[in-house]
């Protein structure tokens, strides 16, 4: 630091030259350190890391849900397409049957009742096609959105049911191992870890802090006099600070942290039970 100052002659001390207006130059280094005696910093970092893990597992759960929705929508679209193809074949078959009956009626081999019944069956089959086409378009648009595309820009090709194959060999695993790998279960465990660390933070806030401080430097009236003999100064110190009276705030914050931990524990238990 550097300053130019005027001191009142009646109150303030002056330099050894007895001038009341002077320049003062002070290069100084100050260091402070707070030993983590009761784990306040350690548990704070632990809580932050657990919260980051919970957010990461939440993202994985969202990604898994997205993948599942893409697969289900693709299968549904393929199923509707298969129904559309079967309906069109049925309409073609009934159209040919109607043509045959019309020819037979013209030759006197079939009655008008038979022809009317065939027309009714053909109309009923044709009536089922538009709803299927609508569902097909809806699944196509939904699949486009799930894959992050506009419906108009989605690829025209669709998955056929005949192309879907289940794996021949399914891996065997214990249910408990499968559950432990679920993102929602891992997120619940991370939330429980963070809540546990919050208890440690609340407890440490009720205990003393011990800051260590040190400083060293030189002060002089001119730059060329810095670090000359007699201009140096230094200090070291230790302090103890602790809450004496806070109206019970810190105590109730600790109790709230313990209650939040119990709540998180029950939520984690519920998540595991739902996973099983």
Summarize the structure.
This protein is mostly helical and 276 residues long. It has helices at residues 40-107, 112-127, 129-146, 175-180, 183-205, 249-275; strands spanning 2-6, 21-25, 28-33, 212-218, 232-238. The protein has a 3-stranded antiparallel beta sheet with strand order 3-4-5, with no helix packed on it. The chain has a two-stranded antiparallel ribbon with strand order 1-2.
How is this structure best described in words?
It is a single chain. With 276 residues, the chain is mainly alpha-helical. Helix content is 57%, strand content 11%. The chain has six helices and five strands. The strands form two sheets. Strands 3-4-5 form a three-stranded antiparallel beta sheet, with no helix packed on it. A two-stranded antiparallel ribbon has the order 1-2.
Strand content: 5-15%
Mean pLDDT: 91
Classify the secondary structure makeup into a structural class.
Answer: mainly alpha
Share of helix among residues? 55-70%
Number-wise, the strands total 5
Q: Number of helical runs?
A: 6
- Main sheet properties: 3 strands, antiparallel
Principal-axis shape: elongated
The helix/strand series, from N terminus to C terminus, equals EEEHHHHHEEH
Q: How do the strands of the widest beta sheet line up side by side?
A: 3-4-5
Low-pLDDT stretches are none
Distance between the termini: 66 Å
Radius of gyration: 40 Å
